[in-house]
## 1
Amino acid sequence: MSDTTDQISRLVKHRGLTIPAFLYGTAWKEAQTEALTSAAIESGFLGIDTANQRRHYDEAGVGKGIQLALAKNNLQRGDLFLQTKFTYAAGQDHRLPYDPKADYTTQVRQSFASSLEHLNTSYLDSYILHGPASSQGLNDADREVWRAMENLQKSGSVKLIGVSNIGFEQLQLLLEGSEVKPAFVQNRCYARTHWDARIRALCDANDMIYQGFSLLTANSVELNRPEMHSISKRLSCSLAQVVFRFALQVGMIPLTGTTSKNHMQEDLASYEIELTEEEIDIIKNIAFLDK
């Protein structure tokens, strides 16, 4: 993680922006979106991740929850880090935030304008390409979308841009072909890939911060191993806290999507514990200890 000290802070500096080191994810919340977004901010989350993809997110509900939380907690828009995404039509349902017949540049602009309206803001802190158009390589659509996102950053409408759900070779291609390099890479993070180690190393080498999601749900078997329970017992904390602390200590921004206010507070309490180097090594290799 760039521009940080050895101490784990709740805020990190990256490319001139101060960013919360832990984000609340709003996918699959539906009717609960407004209340849960507000509860997350009230619990202490200052970073909110969403997407203009009605199939899996209610971005307008996120915006309502943000406004509720700002009013209740005497916060200003500038106190929050708001991140949303552009999603291709293939990843959407019928509720599209743009004209699918328009060129990709126009789709990005329309989706972005819709996000600003949903979130009741004049700018975004981070705008993410929700994933390349295909699982292999990058195509002309990806290049056009990225150029449109670069232009949004140049205009000042968004502070930083990034990409999600991307493979190692695809990320290499994006780095080689882009004028504005991604500031963030957000991937589902599996223990069986050493927690996306190759992509995290590429991030470290190119001034990008890795954001990890599904840290718990993607690794249920590995997290139930006795070694994990032993670490949890030593620290008198939950397995979730162990995983989130691990993410923080290896320089990752973790996301949690919990629907429990108690768990929101517990997840943020990950800042208060500390893993040893030996424990970090165990967790890095947790999927391979018997092999």
## 2
Amino acid sequence: MTAEDDRHTRLAAASHPRRARAEDAALLARLFAAAFARDPGFDWIARRGPRRAEGLERFFFWLLQVRAIPFGEVWLANDGSVAAAWLPPDVPATAGGLMEQIRLLPMFLRLCGLPRMARGSAMADAMEKHHPHARHYYLAFIAVAPRLQGMGLGSAILEATLKRADDAGLPAYLENSNPKNTRLYERHGFVRQQNIAPPAAPPLIAMWRDARKIAPTDPQTRIGNDRGR
């Protein structure tokens, strides 16, 4: 298989993702941890040193297993090269309640380390404070395997999964922590709103995409019919 053939195969897989299952959480946690290893936002809050990669992976495993996959809007290519973790409307974007936050302290301590716990808390507070109240689909994270970035896989899975919001006639929201991704999101209709990052943190840009009305599609070509259930 040539490099161009490989690219077309991977693009096809990204354009027709399947719904993630509970048993995909470990695989996806590794993918997201690798993709966000040098993300400016995570670079600011995550601990330094050899335990950083483990902290990122544990964070994403918790996010996927507890906060995202159970709600049915995490999608991945069959080859595991790209994934998009959405939260559907009416699902809280953050874990609520004092007892839940206390229970999660060890996990966040692994991610941030004691010296950066205040940074992690400030970032989480800023995201919660500015999260929209209108019903919407929330793109929590999108990840492409580092060695495959630049092939258009992120764009392909974003276009495919945005159809979920469009079919429902709902807007979509995300926080962009990496300026390199701004044009990708803008090409898919997201508009920059404001920098919501706490003081001294790298920019975290809230982006909103208005609801769109689209023509009905063939149920056999729409993601989320029965595949991956």
## 3
Amino acid sequence: MTRSILEASGFAASILDALSSHICVIDKDGVIVAVNRAWQDFTNENPPVSTRAGVGAHYLDVCRCASGSDSEDAAKFALGVQSVLQGNAASFQMEYPCHSPTQNRWFSGDVTPLENERRGAVISHTTITDRKLLEFELVRLAATDSLTGVPNRRYFLEAANLEVERVRRFGTAASLVMIDLDHFKAVNDTYGHPVGDEALRCLTHVCKKLLRQIDVIARIGGEEFAVLLPGTNETGAVAVAEKLRHAVYETPVKSGQNQFNITASFGVAEVRVGDTGADECLARADSALYAAKRAGRNRVAKFIAADNKAGTRASLAKLAALVEAGR
């Protein structure tokens, strides 16, 4: 009884057409012998696929003829299909991007062999765009400080370590800047923590406006921030820090009826070819920051070895904890 129902005219086709996945059936040679409605609709909506991916076309050739950014993934998928057809793999699955001019899209391609006298395989392509976008968003959130919207400590350390490696390999210039909001406890005590949060957001907003796209500003502590300046030597970094300092000082924090000015202290250190990681340069920038604080705050200080004695132990201990927490 079951066999007669499945062999009834149009019944199997109706089942395939009811599925949202894009499905095609290929014979043992890779020629497309059947497609469902979702496959037809997709190819019609995405020329020039429609001109070469219908019944009678050679599926492997369709993959091999792909061009542009999708060509490498298409070639890999063709190898997977061929492996299933030749009996070298029980099945094959692969996730890949397939972007259109108006939308970023991702699909999961699955290849399952047909176990009958004709052989061949069933190929389905299912959209996974929503899941991929959610994954990307979760990655972004994991690397972002929720209060200020800038990268967090972990992301900064990863980016800074990559830049240190570039300096070591190619001898390029790069610098790090530590920023600490002055008298932040007094801000919280006077205006309350919500206004203190607004002060932190104000500082990051001002700095982001003046920094380049390749620069990275991150929140690495309560009121502490760090800036990575690729391609910038110590002199250039000091100039950048001075611009940031003036902008922070001249931009009032506004929160409801409250409006007041804040200041910040800056410590600058250039990445050295001998640095083995970002923590070494961060320690020097933090030492310079301590020097700026001791000199009266609201100023920029660059790392000077002679000025390092008073703050070295506290700075290194704090940086060690920072680096450990970011791993």
